Amino acid sequence: MRKAVFNVNNKEYTVEIEEDLRLLDLIRNTLNLTGTKEGCGEGECGACSVLMDGEVVNSCLVLAFQAEGKKIETIENLDREDGTLHPIQQAFLEEGAIQCGFCTPGMVLSAKALLDKNPAPSKHDIRESISGNLCRCTGYNKIAEAIEKAAETLEKEESDSGTARRGTK
Amino acid sequence: MRDLVQNVYQAKDTDSILNLLDQYQDEAKIVAGGTDLIIQMREGNVSPPVLIDISSILEIREIKEEKNTIELGSTATFTDIEKHVFFNHSLSAIAKAARSIGSPQIRNRATVGGNICNASPAADMLPPLLAMDAMVVLKSKQQTRVLPLSEFITGKEETLLKSNELLEKIRFQKLNPNEGLGFSKLGVRNALAIARLSLAVYVEWDENDMCQNVRIASGALGIKAQREWDVERFMKGKCLNNSLFAEVAAFLEESTMKRLAGRSTMNFKRYAVQGVFKQALDEALEDMERRMIYEKGSF
């Protein structure tokens, strides 16, 4: 066992961990953040996707000790301070991009990793961004459409807040 | 019962890796992206008592462009390579090979050094690096060794890496305008596909369409990713035309049938290898033409 400090969703956790604990198990079992799912456990399905220093990774293929000193973001961090959903989550609901929901946290985080870096992605960029996330229900079209819609919403929010900022000057 | 990992270290610099390797020798295993090792550990195939994480060390992640050479830090991820300006503009076959690997999640973690040291017969980055005649720089506390990648990879998941050594970087020469590199991979789908067959082709052509030099490397066409020396010898000094291509294709078919004799995949690979070769060669020639046009344009 070793004592380790983790930054998950902007919160510091000091916990005792086994040396070979996976980041996925740390998140789900030690920190009880069960929004992150375990699917295949070998990096094929993307259900366990989280963001590490802003990059999407499979948390089943990262050992917890490798994540010390890194910023981890899980699906629990997405809703906004006023309790409303993140525009990506909202778009998933509105576009019917969720059926059983098991792949959804990973899909949403892959979409977030994309939109954080590329606010106006092409259809190809969107498909590429979720190519590491398997969905056995929706057939992907609705998910891709939801991400496109979320990109529009986020861009509108951005330009509105820009206008507002300029307006207050 | 599974053996437990007793000690883990998140190394902060190259020296601390070398000291730890010197201290623990066989007991220690280096982990970078972890995309292969963690699966192997969970399957119980490897159980290292000590793990040294090198994925946070920036000094061995750098992709350095010098006047005539490229140095690829061993912990550069496939995302780093895929997005790097040099590979996108000047050696796109390497960016293409990086992009063909896994998924965004895998490419964000998996490293070129891990791909080399795991030495899977289907490793995607090995054929293009072999075709570039890359050298590996191996460092231990006592010494630095530089070996050709083709000698470093000795068999299926076997290399010349010693237990106290770190693969620090990979080095190769930049290409001249009369040279080109192409890469082609056959997988079952776009994302996450493990190569069923891949080939990288390097060519140097003179103005009379004569093949001055050629290096061909294959993946998943035998027990290791390897140079296809016989095919290279066959092509060298010959003129590029359709009949040469047909002769090389026949040569490849025959050598594939010999090498994979008795394997169920032989029957499709004997044909597939010809198509994959054509694609890789065409791409190498296009690459060479692009470089020539660029060279002329820059005068």
Q: Could you characterize what this model shows?
A:
The complex is a heterodimer of chains A (169) and B (299). Helices cover 38% and strands 15% of the residues of chain A. Chain A is built from 5 helices and 5 strands, in the order ββαβββαααα. In chain A, strands 2-1-5-3-4 form a 5-stranded mixed sheet, with helices on both faces. In chain A, strand 1 (2-8) and strand 2 (11-17) form a beta hairpin. In chain A, 43% of the residues are buried. The model of chain A has no long low-confidence stretch (mean pLDDT 94). Chain B is α+β, with helices and mostly antiparallel strands. Chain B folds into 3 domains: 2-53, Uridine Diphospho-n-acetylenolpyruvylglucosamine Reductase, domain 2, CATH 3.30.43; 62-173, Uridine Diphospho-n-acetylenolpyruvylglucosamine Reductase, domain 3, CATH 3.30.465; 179-290, CO dehydrogenase flavoprotein, C-terminal domain (Enolase-like, domain 1, 2-Layer Sandwich). In chain B, strands 4-5-10-6-7 form a 5-stranded antiparallel sheet. In chain B, strand 6 (135-139) and strand 7 form a beta hairpin.
